Amino acid sequence: MIDYEKNIFAHIFRVSNALQVYLDQQLKEDKLTAKQMFLMIVIGSFEEHQPTYKEAADRAGTSYQNIKLMALKLMQTGYIEILDDQMDKRAKRLLLTDQAKAYWLKRDMNDELQMQELFKDFDQKDLKQFYDYIIKMEAGLDGLSSKLKD
User: Fold this and answer.
1) What are phi and psi for residue 87, nearest 5 degrees?
2) How far is CA 25 from CA 32, 78, 103, in A?
3) Statement: the pTM of the whole predicted model exceeds 0.70
4) What pLDDT does residue 150 have?
5) What distance in Å separates the CA atoms of residue 53 and residue 80, rounded to the nearest whole number?
6) Cα–Cα distance for residue pair 66/71, rounded to 1 Å
7) Residue 109: predicted pLDDT
8) How far is 56 from 116, CA to CA, in rounded Å?
9) Which residue in 6, 1, 79 sits closest to 38, CA to CA?
10) Are the CB atoms for 43 and 103 separated by under 8 Å?
11) Three-state SS for 94?
């Protein structure tokens, strides 16, 4: 009998690693990594304000320290600015630069075509179901993570 949980777990790691390798290769000429690209996506997802390191870390599912290190590299390459928070001088806020916005506009069409290619064998029902399963898995992982913090 197939042990689905273990196989799913292993395949998630494999897909994650393969996606990171693919993106790292694709982004090399832009002097970016997949994780730095993801951080820019996370920063851009905050429509109401510029996120702090902590807010970005929470949304990205990683540590404050990882976000800080990636943010410093993105600042050095001109993709983000790191600003002092107006209310709390200890906090830093992350802001996409005009350079980053122009970069994303340039990438949009090609990225859309690659997404279509990646998901070409999925119909809308498959995509919705896959999305629902990933959200359930994230919730389960959040539950496990909260037990570690207790």
Assistant:
1) -95, -35
2) 9, 20, 17
3) yes
4) 61
5) 12
6) 8
7) 80
8) 27
9) 79
10) no
11) strand
Q: Show the tokens assigned to 21.
A: 């390798």
pLDDT of residue 137: 93
Burial 101-122 (b: 16+ CB within 10 A, else e): eebeeeeeeeeeeeeeeeeeee
Distance CA 142, CA 145 (A): 5
Cα distance between residue 16 and residue 35, in whole Å: 11
Residue linked to tokens 């042990």:
3
Q: Is 79 exposed, middle or buried (0-12, 13-18, 19+ CB in 10 A)?
A: buried
Residues with pLDDT less than 70, the chain = 150
Question: What residues are paired with 94 via a beta bridge?
Answer: 82
Over the stretch 81-121, which tens digit does the pLDDT of each residue have?
Answer: 999 988 888 899 999 999 999 999 888 888 889 999 999 99
